[in-house]
What we know:
A: mainly alpha, MetI-like fold, 2 domains, 14 helices, 0% strand, B: mainly alpha
Amino acid sequence: MSASVATGGVRPRRRNYRARAWLIEALCILLGFVLVVWSVLPIYNMIMVALQRHGDVFTSSTYPVNPTMNAFWVVVTESFWYLEHFWHQYWNSLYMGAMTVFFTLLIASLTSFAVGRMRIRHGWIVTNAALLTYVIPATFLSIPFYVIMTDYGMVNNIWAVIASLVTFATPYAIFIFLNYGASIPMELDEAARIDGASPLQVYWRIYLPLMAPAMVAVGTYALLLSWNEFLYQYLLLSSDSSMTVAVALAQFLNSDESPWNLMMATAIIYSLLPVAVYYMFRSKMSAGLTMGGVKG
Amino acid sequence: MDGMQGMQTAPALSQAARAYALPQQRRRLWRGGLQGSEYTWAVAFCIPYMAIFLAFVIYPVLYGLWMGHSPALYQQLWEDPIYRMSIVNTIVYLAVGVNVKLFFALLLSGFFMRKRAWVKAVLVVFILPWAVPALPTFLSIHWMLNSQWGLLDNMMWNWFHIDGPQFLDTSRWLALGSVIVSYIWKWMPFWTVILLAGRMAIPQELYESAEVDGASGIRQFTHVTFPLLANLYLICTLLSTIFTMGDFTTVYFVSGGGPALTTNVLATLGIRDAYTIAEPDLGMAAVMTALPLLIPLVLILMRKMRTAEVQL
């Protein structure tokens, strides 16, 4: 360092610059390493515990000593009393997710078509309603929602949860559709209208096909939302036949000595679908399209 | 992320903001306005959404306000030491969790601007906490922090022969800290991506001319990046605070409100009062005490999103 300062000139300065570039590169690699460890650690823990036998979980090892797929086998064959209905619960989760996606896409696309394309008078009422829903924490509404659903006898009915999920997924879907729809030339609608197409035909034959990319992104978002949601399912679904995997997972905690290996194996199987869907459609989801995924 | 190049890079919030501003433009794009039956169609298309809005938002909101209207409930809450503790916890959780998360997200978004293949690969891994559903990961963290057999304790013991602290069992602040770190772990990737999109939308020429003028890396950040991102950063902070106020899952699964009910936040306390103690009105009153903070935040946010679509 002192030598380069003393001699000055072009070459030492360049060497100095190069040393600095190396230092920055080294720090970046270090940071990248730290980030990977930080991100993966809880997921590593999940996998490690799932690969152990029940007794091995309660040891002080940091890696699976006798790795076995036993826990996964127990889960998929439903051979533990907490997991008796696993596949039924998985079906419930899947059904709930699929219905949430379908109704979110249907309702949001119809609304955005009327507001964004047909420019219905007083459309601002609809967008304000959506914005209001977007900023109300769903948790706070769960208490009156539960009481109302009890009054209507909708407890243990999966449609009560689907209704709440659609309610909270639709506003963001509307925003995305309005924004994406603005990039589709209005002349297409006009041409169809001149040819005598009814609004329903314009919606079905022109609007929907052109909105396909936004539909994929919003559909993925709605699926992730339903997979992330816990509270409404926990409050509304408690019977064996209506329960979803999320509720069943939380139930494990009620026992005195939880079978952590089975719990983590269930958790991994539960996580596979959203992770696969997310990485499959990752390129379709620009940052904006995922915005709603943080709603609490 | 792949989809972030080109015109699609417009940051998330500006999308919502622009969508929100749309109806204010008085341009009627279906020429001649809606005619005859078309207006009926348009109204019919809006009916499903307005129906769910009235049934599942307005009705529960009014019902909730009615449930929590009695002043006696607030008297009862205030006399409960657990409630007073929850207020402090909520404030700490919001102030530390949201700000630390967003500050690191801002810095990390700069790191992810580097155009190296391995940096892109790190981003793919870094996004994982967001892609994996919340519940399984928080359960995993809960077990990781177990003071006897948890992974962290085992690592400290095996590698450094330190007996790890009791993260969740004795100290209120250690447990709350664990909750906050878990929360940051889960949501930082998402906000990093949002701010990354914001950075990508800044024209490269600005940096080039700043460099010509002799601005160093830090001065480029303070004089170019930050002024241009400030508005987005502010909106992110407001939105994130609002969303975090309703966060139930993190506290419920990481600390479970323990030790001895000292780490509840308003959301978990409200649910506890409403269901475990079976006093729905009291639970509603508990979450309603967040309104004095929630309403101003919502008003500022709506104003910000209406007037300035996030300027970049």
